[in-house]
Amino acid sequence: MRSTLPWLSAASALTALALVTGCGASVEKAGTQDEAAGKDSGHYPVTITNCGQEKTFEAAPERVVTNDVGITEIMFALGLTDHMAGYVMSDNRGEKADTPWSDAYGETEWLSDEAISKEIAVGAKADLVFAGWNYGFNEAAGFTPATLDTLGIDSYLLTESCRSGQGKARGVMSPLDALYTDLRTLGKVFDVEDRAEDLVADFEQRVAAVAKKAPTGEDRPRVFLYDAGQDKPFTSGQYAGPHDIITKAGGDHVMADLEDSWVTVGWETVVERDPEIIVINDYGDVSAEQKETFLKSFAPLKNVSAIKNDRIVVLDYADLVESPRNPAAIETLGAYLREHAG
Length: 342
What we know:
With 342 residues, the protein is α/β, with parallel strands linked by helices. Helices cover 39% and strands 18% of the residues. The chain has 14 helices and 15 strands. The protein has helices at 10-23, 32-40, 69-77, 102-107, 118-123, 145-150, 175-189, 193-213, 241-249, 267-273, 288-297, 305-308, 317-320, 326-340; strands spanning 3-4, 46-50, 53-57, 64-67, 84-88, 110-112, 128-133, 136-137, 154-157, 222-226, 234-236, 252-253, 262-264, 277-282, 312-316. Helix 9 (241-249) packs across helix 14. The longest helix has 21 residues, at 193-213. It is globular. It starts with a strand and ends with a helix. Mean pLDDT is 90; it is low at 1-32.
């Protein structure tokens, strides 16, 4: 039987509600008063480092365009809807209504469900685009930070997507550290550093609480993340969100040795590493149920422990990419792993 875990447990929902009301995760906004305070206090100019590049901001960006769900919700969690021109997001990237940021979605313009482009950025009069390599930025599509620079539009790269210097491989730090880095860095850019630190402290406490209860030693189940693909599976290496979600929840990530973020592997590698639990990434035109049916009917996997014991769990795309939903995903997956450990 498939276990479908909601991204937010009841306990997590209470934590998220407290976060919304206490830390400004969705409704508290950094508007003109914050900007005036920043200028009066001498906060600007500020210099930050983003994916190894030093950037200076003379003032907080006013018309930010974000791409994809995790990136958009980072801005929402920091209370920055007043600084957004809108967001670009496919309509198959997960539930938006039942989240701590549902009000923020209602207050922010949905610019397109198609791929982000320079035309969208220009049309929105963006002064900054927050996206990432393969999270919107792509040389083949002709949409890069350099492209935007020629149009007078600044950019901020999602830290999970930073290229490592080894070709186009992505990942320069652990996935949770990438999330905390972006929260803190954007907190500095928008002069909401206290808000960013409150979020990071809350997330760290919640992750630590799960880790304290997590299985240890031989009781830690081997876990494989299945994103998509039939000829070859698309999965997570050590620098994509699922790595920390799996390991902090109490599992051993079977693809932890892959020094990249989201990658393609061979089925023979999956069979050899014999995962005891498979996590399905639920998004796109192929449903989680269809993905599960494929995995269970795919002959090469018939002797894999997760298939034999029917231990398949579903998490939402927004849980697994870098986003403020990551701690809740660790909590819910942690509960599942504790139930099936040993």
